[in-house]
Design brief:
Strand content: 15-25%
Enzyme class: oxidoreductase
Number of strands: 24
Family: Belongs to the aldehyde dehydrogenase family.
Bound molecules: nicotinamide-adenine-dinucleotide
Keywords: NAD, Oxidoreductase
InterPro entries: Ald_DH/histidinol_DH, Ald_DH_C, Ald_DH_CS_GLU, Ald_DH_N, Aldehyde_DH_dom, ALDH7A1-like
Radius of gyration: 24 Å
Organism: Gangjinia marincola
Amino acid sequence: SAGIDIKKTLDQLGIKETNQGTSTGNTWFSSGDPITSISPVDGEKIASVTTTTKEDYEKVIASAQMAFKTWRVMTAPQRGEVVRQFGEELRRLKEPLGQLVSYEMGKSYQEGLGEVQEMIDICDFAVGLSRQLHGLTMHSERPGHRMYEQYHSLGIVGIISAFNFPVAVWAWNTALAWVCGDVCVWKPSVKTPLCGVACQHIIAKILKDNDLPEGISCLINGDYTVGEMMTTDSRVPLISATGSTRMGRIVASKVGERLGKSLLELGGNNAIIVTPDADLKMTVIGAVFGAVGTAGQRCTSTRRLIIHESMYDKVKDAIVDAYKQLNIGDPLDTNNHVGPLIDTDAVKMYESALKKVVEEGGKLIVEGGVLSGEGYESGCYVKPAIAEAENEFEIVQHETFAPILYLMKYSGEVENAIELQNGVAQGLSSAIMTNNLRESERFLSVTGSDCGIANVNIGTSGAEIGGAFGGEKDTGGGRESGSDAWKVYMRRQTNTINYTTELPLAQGIKFDL
Ligand code: NAD
């Protein structure tokens, strides 16, 4: 692949030709079948990772349960110090880890580095948070009583992640969970197992340097059957799962059956509204990056552009023009804008979506297609496509994880655009391009966007770690990362203390003996 010595990168990250896929920290084992990781960049086999069996899983849970006893009684700032060191180690390994993300998943090297930067940022956030796990005090209705609430560590947090953010999603969860005093068991996507192995090596070194026990950071590998070992296990009080809505429904019901907690980060169907007062240049950059960045494989990728009829032709022409300038190819070559899809199954889904939109009456204005020949040997490279479509088309209602952008018109007031924007099952990210204060405030009001993320004069894709991240409806309702998202990783306890010699009851109830 262009410009990188992948063997050196793998060496720096402790990845061998065959790797054990189960780990409790510095102990690695596994007796299941190997998963071979193939790069979508060049179709080459990178390395293999063995899967976790039920027996291996039991060892992991026993180790995590033991570790929790030590970890939860350390002070939160002490745990924050471990996370600080982890962030430092990530700074040191940013380049090789960014390269591995790019090579195993297929996103551009810049985006691979960006993903590692997100890990570093969340570590910094978590370090500060470790001194701010605040509860509240309340005034008691009973005299001589004090009432407050506090947050305690929860236990084992099970993390199930998707292929498209193979390292950052783990860090979003784990950095917060650790300062909260939880221990973590991570099952990465079966499509990006080496990113999991690399991250586990990085944290294992830090835990060892600090003489901490095995079990604080654990790794398991395999497909959904391995994920199900956690979702059905009541020893794992919280499951944080990132992936498709289909997966989320199954996970929620399994975890719900045992009354566990789940944090769900599922699919999106994100739109940008372009009003008559939009800045055209900003709209084009925001829409094109949102639609083709990560080859349309972000949960926040822009899928729909809802354009006012008075601007429609102008916006359409400018975007079609911009698409002509896109270079598609090796994501590690910085001249390219668009890399491959994750695998050939994703290519099939892309092709079938393009077929479907035409069958439903849509019109392709930038034709897609699968690329072949030199540089495209993996069979995973596709051309970003644009179709004019209606919001109610079945295919438009559906999240296709590929660079396909649907254009649609609205007329009249911004309310009509908001109705279209909200008229899908998913509710992750949304944006409006406008310099009109009334339109932007309407979009952000209670009758505006129904999504977890609503942006003004920014596209739908990409988010900072300081805010809570997640979405409503079929996106699952979970929130991760910044703001007070940490609370889900802890259990809340309300405490009332009586410092009198009487025992008055609440609500003035009399109970005389
Ligand atoms: P996926 O649903 O196929 O898999 C995600 C993870 O869930 C994998 O680790 C998989 O092994 C596991 N899994 C699947 N079925 C399971 C089950 N029944 N029990 C336990 N685990 C199970 O998703 P993907 O193709 O890897 O990722 C793409 C999807 O993820 C898109 O829909 C995208 O929008 C979504 N996503 C959402 C966010 C977000 O924060 N909202 C972030 C990234 C990706």
